[in-house]
Amino acid sequence: MARVSRTQTNVIKKQVNGWRVAIYIRLSRDDGNIESYSVKNQREMLLDYVDRCGEDMEIVDIYIDDGFTGTDSDRDAFQRMLDDLKRKRANCVIIKDLSRLSRNYVEAGHYIEMLFPILDVRFICLDPELDSFKHPETVNSMMIAMLNVFNEDFCRQTSAKVRKVFDLKRQKGEFIGGFAPYGYQKDPENKNKLLVDDEAADVVRNIFQWFMDGMSKYGICQKLNRLGVLCPSLYKQSKGQQYKNPHSNDNPVWSARTIDSILHNQSYIGDMVQGRYRIKSYKIHTQICVPADDWFIVEGTHEPIVSEEVFDTVQNLLKRDTRVAPKQDKIYLFSGFMRCADCGRAMRHQTVRGKHTYYLCRTYKDRGKELCTKHTIREDNLYLAVLTAIQKQVAIAVSMADMVSEINKAPTVERDSRRLVDAIECKQNELNKIKRYKTNLFGSLQDGDITKEEFRDMKAEFDKKSESLQESIVALEKEYQKSICGVNEKNQFLAHFMKYQNITELKREILAKLIENIYVQENGNIVIRFRFADEYRLAAEFIENNERLLA
């Protein structure tokens, strides 16, 4: 490390006509509840030193960083102190111990051995006793360098321990954030638990509903700003929380980015989602995104604000390529649902002469007829065709639900299910018996009751029977599933389509719940791919398998 020359020390002596003292205090969460590290105790110790040192000292300021780690040099009070030292407002720094200055040994060495001497600043530390003016040799000793290394290593170990504790809490679904997600508040009796904040929760519900109604994210934030609804950062501050959004300016308002974050937040269905960001290292506090597969997600830890159905519908809409009409807050009704039946690309929305609106193939529009054709359809015709198709699908669901209900009333359904359960249980008992025989077989071989050849023959026979029984059990379980699948209102196809028995108009919310995509063929005809195709097949198979029970 660099050493301070005697010339520099002499310069300080000649220039000093009294010491203008900067007292620096730092307390971090890593210090825990150690009483001697408290801000109060540090202040008392440092003020007491100034009073009893017998030197001409004037305290110009006390700089306090509360809640800042020593590996981060970007501390508000610390940076303000450095500015004051450079402006010659102070020429002496006093701290309690070396770790208060920094837990990064490279930075600590830079301040003590380079910056302070260059600025003609006297450096005093109480533990260990250091004074760059009275005893300059102590500042440059190997012991100080080693202490700085130990301080950094302590921080590294503490960081690893804290991370381990936090990860354990995350795995248990305990909230460890500094501030609850907008719409929630920390439980006053348990800071690791979230409670619904009714006022903000109503805003969250409105955001989800407006988006399902077809409003764009920009349109939603504009509406909230017009209504005078406080954005999350201002709302938290209004509740007395010391919150500052690092991404907002001095006049924070609702933004499309905030709306997008809320719409994607799984916390609103009652799941605890944590660990989405992490710092690069204990020395570099820049946050980086963590892949979704590595997040800590624990389901059902707190009361939901929106239902899973609403959340899933919104996620379905968010995945789609949506375009917003110029100077409008609404998303086009079919935006994100339309596909060319041949090239598969999204369809483009276009208004001709201000009268009729069409959808046409984006490939054709962008690159010409050499790669694809128009595949065009008027929006009003599309609207009517989709509405009619949904109404027909709803009618099918109603008819199937009636048949399922009638089948369920037949006592033979329950008898068939019971018969299959009994058959599965019987086969499973046989399989368990064979497993026991195979276990005893090894004992018989070891005891000499059977020969190796007899062992091989008997084991092969048992393996054959075991394989046959396992195949029978799988077949019976499939038959049992067929006998019970689709027999109640939990079947997703029946449950979703039955809700719209009186549908007379289309909304984006309805499209998101019922339709995957709409494909436009070259002649303008459409093919609709509905959701819940697998559930439809299960219900249809159930009806077909029990058709004999229908009147």
TrEMBL record:
One of its GO terms (molecular function) is DNA strand exchange activity. Residues 20-173 form the Resolvase/invertase-type recombinase catalytic domain. It comes from the Bacteria. Residues 181-324 form the Recombinase domain. This is DNA invertase Pin-like site-specific DNA recombinase.
